[in-house]
Design brief:
29% helix, alpha+beta, 146 residues, two-stranded antiparallel sheet, two-stranded parallel ribbon, 19% strand, 5 helices, 2 domains
């Protein structure tokens, strides 16, 4: 609701995969009082990709090499929304959630201090499970080799 007001958006929609039943239960309890709509997503990959997300939720097609705002949409992930709330209250951003997956012994998501070396993140996930690996920052769809 705070971001909707700051941007002048007419609607705020939370899109979440249907399979996350406990999260849905909590969202359904509170969405109405904040004027937020809920949109159930199927369990497909890449459901969180902004081009896919905008199309699934609004039916709008983002042209190639364009951004959601070019079709009247703003897409934010949950962590960014939390940062906005923290910034509004004056709290500094000192850590973020990081997902380490792929060829590690214990794929996981955890909170890490900003600036943590990638080697430390890999170790926290149990270390590499293969000898020759590459690091992709940002995931398989949009990530970049480090």
């Amino acid at each position: 609701a705070k971001v909707r007001g700051a941007t002048g958006a007419k609607r705020a929609i939370i899109a979440l995969k249907k399979k996350y039943k406990s999260a849905w239960s909590e969202l359904e309890k509170h969405a109405k009082k904040f004027g937020v709509e809920l949109f159930p997503l199927g369990s497909f990959y890449p459901a969180g990709d902004e081009v896919t997300l905008v199309y699934e939720v609004t039916g709008r097609v983002i042209p190639e090499a364009s951004l959601p705002m070019n079709v009247g949409c703003l897409v934010q992930n949950v962590h960014t929304l939390c940062w906005i709330d923290d910034a509004d209250s004056g709290a500094p951003v000192t850590e973020r959630y990081v997902t380490v997956g792929g060829a590690v012994r214990h794929p996981t998501t955890f909170l890490a201090p900003i600036g943590t070396p990638v080697s430390d993140l890999i170790e926290k996930a149990g270390g590499a499970s293969v000898e020759n690996y590459v690091i992709i920052d940002g995931g398989p769809m949009m990530g970049k080799f480090v």
